[in-house]
Amino acid sequence: MRWEGRRKREGAALKKNKPAVFSPRIRGVIFDLDGTIVEAAYDWSRIRADLGTSGLPILSYLDSLEEPERSRKWRLLREYEDEATRKARLKKGTREFLHFLTRRGLKKALVTNNSRRNVRFLVRKFRLEFDHVLSRESGLWKPSGAPFKEVMRKLGLKKGECAVVGDSLFDLQAAEEAGIEWVFLISQDRDKFPPSRAEVVPSLPALQRRFEMLLGGLSQVTCFWNDP
Ligand SMILES: [Mg+2]
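Above: inputs. Below: predicted complex with magnesium ion.
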């Protein structure tokens, strides 16, 4: 497993047959928005069908279109997004987890393929605070790792110091492309994702408990990575 090298370096204090351990140094957490910290009712299958994306990522597809189809379909996407944003609810445990990270001195960022307007609306409505927010107007979209790399650059974080919290395959793919190993996917269904080093966690309160263990001042923490 990936921590094998570190375990060897720290090996003097470890005994055989004990759980594999390491000391994480997470200094920043990059969150996804929709489905991760807010519940938003998107019917992505219907939206893709209405837009006719032919299996392409929605933003890449829209960006490839010529006028007037381009404007018409962007407008259709915005209508879906605006409606979902108006009805969105903050997920249980979001505010508590963000406060916890702040108390522990970690940076918090938000990276979303949603629009700046909708992100602003939700961040203000739910009184959330982030050190950096990146929306799709940046031109950097998941599943590319580029938006995560940009956040790390802005916040002065190395990839080994970051964790990603998301709810979709795009979040996982973007984290992998950016070289971020700490990935937490909020889902009740761990079979929704392909095998990876990401940890599937059922809720934000459960993730906070996981972070309390990781950051709890313990010199050694049990490794819970899923075996690939
Ligand atoms: Mg999401």
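The first helix runs from residue 4 to 9.
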